[in-house]
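tool=predict chain=A
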Amino acid sequence: MTPQPQLHGRRIGYIRLNTLCGDLQRQLEGLPLDRVFKDTISRKRQFLAQFAAMMNYVRAGDTLVVQRMDRLARNPEEFFRVMYTLSRKGVRVECLTEDLTIPAEDDSALGHFILLIMSAFWEASRSWTSERQRAVRACPPATEDGEENY
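tool=predict ok
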C-alpha cells in the first residue's frame, strides 16, 4: 500500500446550530483551527450563508472539522453531494463525534461506495437520535424524592 502524502493545508471548522438557544463555541472548543464558519438556523431561516462561504473557501489539502456528520447536511442525498464536492476539491473531513476521518480525493468506485455507505449511516444515526429524543420526552418526570413517577 502506498503511504498517503502528508497534508499541509489549513484546518477549517464549520459549526451549525438548529436553534437560536444553542452554544456555537462548544462544538469545536479548544481545537486548533485556522478559520471557523458558523451558521445558526431556524425553521424560518434555512439558507446557510456561512456553509456556502465555507464550501467556496476550502481548497485542496485543507481539513474540514465538524462536530458531527449531520452538521454538513439535512438529508442523505445532500450529505452525499457535499461529501462528493469536498472530495473532488481535495478536502479531508474530520467528524469528531463519530471519530471518523474521510480522506480527500478518493474518486474511485470504492470511494463512491464508501460515501454511499456513509450516507446510509448518517441517516441511521439521525433516526436513532430522534428515537432516543422521543423516548426521553415520553418518560414521566422523576418526583422530588428521586423516585420515578409511574
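The first helix runs from residue 24 to 27. The chain has one domain: 11-138.
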